């Protein structure tokens, strides 16, 4: 079974802090994604990566950056956390082929105070 | 990007009842998946179904790609079916970006 692991289940940070959310997958997937989920808005794509050191902006990249130095790890960085970034963050991965299933981690619920 | 609409937004069922959830999408897709998000936030992949019909126990799904919709059927619902059901699609030639609907929130009461 594919395993996508997010480093924290719950996280509380202060406004202005730099925040790192880590995601690791164990199935050699080429593609990795970061989504945020907010009530009434569904899942919105922040960034995705299709290869090491490659990244593409999603629908809401402002205020975020990402890093993919190794194939299995995709990090989401909040350079200066703000209260409007309080949300559920979900990492996912898939194979490169367009017809591959998407596998999600358990999510990180981030609260910025 | 592709617009994805799910209906109904909310559904309350008595245990044992059947239900149909619908997903409409605005353009041709080469990937369509249904997910169940449980009350703890975990998203579980139910079906990969860009076309045709699949069944897995009490759940089945049908996608009619030419008419741009997919249906998820839940039969003999159980309280553990509660949660939010999402439909996600990826378009032909659109790389690997998935577009999600806003979900159907299902509550099954005993």
In terms of DSSP E residues, the strand content of chain A is over 45%
SSE pattern of chain A, N- to C-terminal: EEEEEEEEEEE
Pair with the most extensive interface?
A: A-B, 29 and 25 residues
Main sheet record of chain A = 7 strands, mixed
Percent range for β-strand residues of chain B: over 45%
Helix content estimate of chain A: under 10%
Oligomer: heterodimer
Helix content of chain B: under 10%
Helix and strand content put the structural class of chain A at: mainly beta
Describe the structure.
The complex is a heterodimer of chains A (113) and B (110). Chain A is mainly beta. Helix content of chain A is 0%, strand content 53%. In chain A, strands 2, 4, 5, 6, 9, 10 and 11 form a 7-stranded mixed sheet that branches. A 4-stranded antiparallel sheet of chain A has the order 1-3-8-7, with no helix packed on it. Chain A is globular, with a radius of gyration of 13 Å. Chain A starts with a strand and ends with a strand. Chain B is mostly beta strands and 110 residues long. Chain B has one domain (4-109): Sandwich (Immunoglobulin-like). Chain B is 0% helix and 60% strand. Chain B contains no helices and 11 strands. Chain B has strands at residues 4-7, 10-14, 19-25, 29-37, 43-48, 52-56, 59-64, 69-74, 83-91, 98-100, 104-109. In chain B, the strands form 2 sheets. In chain B, strands 2, 4, 5, 9, 10 and 11 form a 6-stranded mixed sheet that branches. In chain B, strands 1-3-8-7-6 form a 5-stranded antiparallel sheet, with no helix packed on it. In chain B, 35% of the residues are buried. Classes of the chains: A mainly beta (113), B mainly beta (110). The interface between A and B is medium-sized, with 29 and 25 residues.
Notable characteristics:
heterodimer, A: mainly beta, Immunoglobulin-like, 7-stranded mixed beta sheet, 4-stranded antiparallel beta sheet, B: 110 residues, mainly beta, 6-stranded mixed beta sheet, 5-stranded antiparallel beta sheet, 11 strands, 0% helix, 60% strand, globular
